[in-house]
Specification:
- The chain is α/β, with parallel strands linked by helices and about 325 residues long.
- It is about 35% helix and about 15% strand.
- The chain is built from twelve helices and nine strands.
- The strands form two sheets. The protein has a five-stranded parallel beta sheet with strand order 7-6-5-8-9, with helices on one face. A four-stranded parallel beta sheet has the order 2-1-3-4, sandwiched between helices.
- The chain binds N-carbamoyl-L-aspartate (NCD).
- N-carbamoyl-L-aspartate (NCD) binds next to helix 3 and helix 8.
Length: about 325
């Protein structure tokens, strides 16, 4: 992949393809715009930020939250959408059309493209064949930059800072794109420590990311007993079934680490927050959902809407 342009506090008409484009100040300035969007949703307002604009949502992989929060965000901002889920079946892709040709077509009908695709760097490739902003809503096992923004915002909302924090990332750290983007995002800030807990086969690919993560102290652990008791957040993830060639291997690994009330009472503290990008399969027991510290069905998904509204407004507002 080439280098997508740095955002440097100016999102206007730019694509967001990778966390690499963002610096600390761009992230924090975007966060300043979030409360305004939150208030307008709470008042059921439709804003004018995207009035007259049409945004294409092109999702080649399944999605619940990312797709619908983006669609809701565009509409809340007064824009309109062309919405495609399952393009492989419902568009000319079914006839064999290439990604490039699909993107060129939608760039004629719309002012921006939000794309999710199973191939790493596909969003970047899409941005190279059109002249409208492209937002990466997940490119294979690579990245998910807007999930990073909502995850960091959720942490920021609780602790009022993004440095000197201690986090625990658990699950499929090899294939989980949200984890890749979150670690890159956290590493824009100083003094963070991250414990990585996964089955050996699903370890975080440190070699791919080493330069981006130099600000963060990374500690790989192999057992739940090594989780520090003073962590600020736990970020649990599912084992990514669709990335396995051998489903027997998936079955073996899928429930390696389960978040339960018992583990929480052993290793949790009262200020901790519990996060998960969702969907959750069996890796968090449903009893945990009632715990006040569980953010995944509360602030974390709500923030997905507000943060995406703030981002879209910065990119597309006149
Ligand atoms: C994640 C994704 O698609 O990467 N979901 C999401 O967008 N919130 C996580 C996952 O699928 O496990």
């Amino acid at each position: 992949m080439g280098n997508p342009p740095l955002i440097k506090d100016n999102f206007k008409q730019k694509s967001l393809l990778s966390v690499d484009q963002l610096d600390k100040s761009s992230i924090l300035n975007l966060f300043k715009k979030v409360p305004l969007q939150k208030r307008s949703v709470e008042k059921n307002e439709i804003r004018n930020d995207l009035k007259g604009k049409i945004i294409s949502l092109l999702f080649f992989e399944p999605s619940s939250r990312t797709f619908s929060s983006f669609a809701a965000a565009v509409k809340r901002l007064g824009g309109q959408t062309l919405e495609f889920q399952n393009l492989t079946e419902t568009s000319s892709v079914k006839k064999g059309e290439s990604l490039e040709d699909t993107i060129k077509t939608f760039s004629v009908y719309s002012n921006g493209i939000i794309i999710r695709h199973p191939q790493a760097f596909s969003a970047y490739n899409a941005s190279q064949v059109c002249n409208i902003p492209v937002i990466n809503a997940g490119d294979g096992t690579n990245e998910h930059p807007t999930q990073m923004l909502l995850d960091l915002y959720t942490i920021y909302e609780k602790f009022n800072k993004l440095n000197n924090l201690k986090g625990v990332l658990v699950g499929d750290l090899l294939n989980g794109r949200t984890v890749h983007s979150l670690l890159k995002g956290l590493s824009k800030f100083k003094g963070n420590t991250v414990y990585l807990l996964s089955p050996k086969q699903l370890s975080f690919p440190l070699e791919k990311f080493s330069t981006e993560l130099k600000n963060t102290q990374i500690i790989k652990i192999r057992d739940e007993s090594e989780i520090p008791e003073d962590a600020n957040f736990w970020y649990w993830t599912r084992v990514q079934k669709e990335r396995f060639k051998n489903l027997r291997e998936y079955e073996k690994l899928k429930n390696s680490f389960i978040l339960s009330n018992e583990l929480l009472s052993k290793k949790g503290n009262k200020n901790l927050i519990l996060m998960h990008p969702l969907p959750r399969i069996e890796e968090i027991e449903s009893e945990v959902d009632q715990d006040k510290r569980a953010m995944y069905f509360r602030n974390q998904i709500r923030n997905g809407l507000y943060v995406r509204m703030a981002l879209l407004s910065l990119i597309f507002k006149k």
